[in-house]
Amino acid sequence: MVGIQSTAQVTSWLDAGRGLFLSIHVLGIGCFGYIVAKRLTPLIRGQRDLRFDQPLTRLGKVLKYWLGQWKHPRYRVAGTMHMLIFAGFLVLAIRAFSVLIVGVSQNFVMPGLSGRAGPIYNTITDYAATIVFLCMVFAVIRRLGFRPARYDVPARYGKAHTADAIFLLALIAILMVADSLFAAAKATAQAQQGQLAEALAAFSLPWFLQRALLSTSLPALGKLYFGAYLLHEVTFYFLLCYRPFGIQFHVETSLFNIYFAKPDREILKPVRWGVSDEHLDQVKSFGVKTFEDFTWKHMLDFYSCADCGRCSDNCPANAVGRPLSPRFIGIKARDYAFQHYPMFGHAGNGSRLIGKIYSEDEIWSCTTCGACEEECPLLVEHIDKIVDLRRGMIDDGNVPQSLQKPLKALENRGNPYGKMEKKKADWTKPENFQQTCKVRILNGNNGAELLYFVDSITSFDDRLQSIGRVTAKILNYVGENFGILGAAEQDSGHEVRRFGEETLFMALREHNIASIQASGVRRIVTADPHAYNALKHDYQNIPPVEHISQLIAREVKAGNLRFNPVENNGRVYTYHDPCYLGRHNQIYDDPRDVLDAIPGLKRVEMSRSRDRSFCCGGGGLMLFYEPKEDQRMGVKRVQMAAEAGANVIVTACPFCMVNIEDAIKVSGLEGKMTAIDLTELVDQQMAREGQKVA
Ligand code: SF4
Ligand code: SF4
Question: Do residues 80 and 206 both lie within one domain?
Answer without folding.
Answer: yes
